[in-house]
């Protein structure tokens, strides 16, 4: 099978995985289904794809990190910044040192720098994998925000540590002082490159749009190219392209608040990026399954060099490393949380602090599932050393990383629903209050704008038509400002229930509208163009109502 046919088969496997997951009664995580389909492709094709590590890293890492930075809740990121930094920086270094020495002690044939590289690439967590599991486990929203923020930053810190370890393998030397200075430059210049590229590109795009209008599809293509541009600029500066992609995404989230993009562009761009994220994550896991046969053969050779012929040693190593990572994570979470609560108690002069339940602490440790970033990073290990010798224990390292991904996904899938089942977590009232306040102020501003527009458009419309139209539009916004928004919580809850009922009725009505339009088009009573236009209008309204219902 040609390489292009394998790529097409992998894309079809990504599509099929979403349906296969829904058909399976066990509720397996999507990445496990994709890995299995990749193994099927490998058995069918008979040979694996030869990967260029640098090209693979460039294609997969920047857009995923950019999207994580773009969509991370900035409010939660800054509110829990201390906890997130403790997990994203301190835990990464703690994991690299602890797991690195443990792996080298357990597998002496694996050089210590390679063990550190394996520990470093296993330190980043994957919120996408946990998010798919969270639908069946009541993970508190604030904990999910912390896990997302941790995953955003530990991707960068873990991959930077990984590159340091790989460089030590290639050169045979490592200097802590030089590494510290290099890290400062990598971080500072990488973040600056990401911010500068995003701000510069969006500013130029805004100026061109203001002068010449917005070409269809152009803003979406620009957003797709920004992470690659930030990454390449940072790499040219010998800085961290990883941090540049993250910084570019966070900068993009602030640029988005300026409201520069058109509404239709935002809707289309969201759909495109959702597709990109689903495709890249899926292809990486399918690719892992496709590479498994070759990885297993190479790992068996590395295992023989360590003196163990029985392949069950591979399983033992993977389980031991996974258990060690969970233990390190639990110890770090418990220790840092104890210090944080102690400091809070001292500042409050003896006030009582509520310690989280031990089940929540263990769930936080299990929620550190590994995924796409770990897989993408470990596959970039060089094939040979500068002197031409094979990279030591490369296949064994890839196999162990892949096995830990599988075990961590299974542990989170099985453990989280059982640990958190039956636990009830209070809602965050601040978020609901902010949403209520924003709705009221937006509705008041809309009514004022309608009244001003009514005066400005008086000469352009019939005197009897404009007041009636204005009254109808204002009535929609006054509905949000009616007596239901009184100070009584009971009235607010009644309004929310009524709003949900109205949403359900609107969705049913729009489904009937769409069915009728399709029926008219099938019987040639209206043109296809008219049908597409009307259906698009209904789809946009329905998407808004469905998003509000989540």
Automatic annotation (TrEMBL):
Residues 12-420 form the Cation/H+ exchanger transmembrane domain. The keyword Mitochondrion does not apply. Keywords: Antiport, Cell inner membrane, Cell membrane, Ion transport, Membrane, Sodium, Sodium transport, Transmembrane, Transmembrane helix, Transport. GO terms for molecular function: potassium:proton antiporter activity; sodium:proton antiporter activity. The keyword Glycoprotein does not apply. It is a multi-pass membrane protein. GO terms for cellular component: plasma membrane. Coiled coil: none annotated. The chain crosses the membrane at residues 31-49, 55-72, 84-107, 113-135, 183-204, 216-234, 240-259, 312-339, 360-384, 396-416. GO terms for biological process: regulation of intracellular pH; sodium ion import across plasma membrane. It is found in: Cell inner membrane; Cell membrane. Belongs to the monovalent cation:proton antiporter 1 (CPA1) transporter (TC 2.A.36) family. Na(+)/H(+) antiporter that extrudes sodium in exchange for external protons. This is Na+/H+ antiporter. It comes from Pseudoduganella guangdongensis.
